[in-house]
Amino acid sequence: MNFFEVVQARRSLRRYLDKPVEREKLEHVLESARLAPSWKNLQCWRFIIVEDAAGREALADSMEESNPGRKALMGVPIVVVLCALPSESEVWEGKDFMMLDAGLAMEHLVLAATDQGLGTCWQGLFSEEKVRKSLNVPDNVRVVAMTPLGYAAEERRPRPRKAMAEIVHYGKWGGLL
Known about the structure:
- The structure is a single chain.
- The mean pLDDT is 94.
- The protein has helices at 3-9, 23-34, 53-60, 69-74, 97-115, 128-135, 164-167; strands at residues 45-50, 78-84, 91-92, 95-96, 119-120, 142-150.
- By secondary structure, it is α+β, with helices and mostly antiparallel strands.
- Helix 2 (23-34) packs antiparallel against helix 5 (97-115).
- It has a four-stranded antiparallel sheet, sandwiched between helices.
């Protein structure tokens, strides 16, 4: 796939096949995340790869019962947990670059997974404290997000997107095409 095809193909998936992810594909996805840009090249992100059933279940237990992401975490071979070190980033003029940098790394990971024929579903609604405790994450590290990583057991159609005219301004705010 070319880059635009990867972007078009990416979907948030919640059902996965009971099929292991090849180590080479996992390493490719993680290498893509490692190469993401960051504020002052500080690279504040860290990843925890959770492959055992008990670990995935503990992560699912960090979510509310009604969260559809719970089942995805338990029914996938790998969960990638994105962490970030505030000490390796900065807040400048109210902009939290740690969250931006971690997000860029996760987006690289998600797009690389799509390119490798793997599915993901960015998860952010969980108890950080429960995840921290279950994975031994130190207090000076933030747990930012997580995603299941595996082969899709479902196909999802594209969701509606806003029109270009709704999101792009030329020259100044309100400057339309």
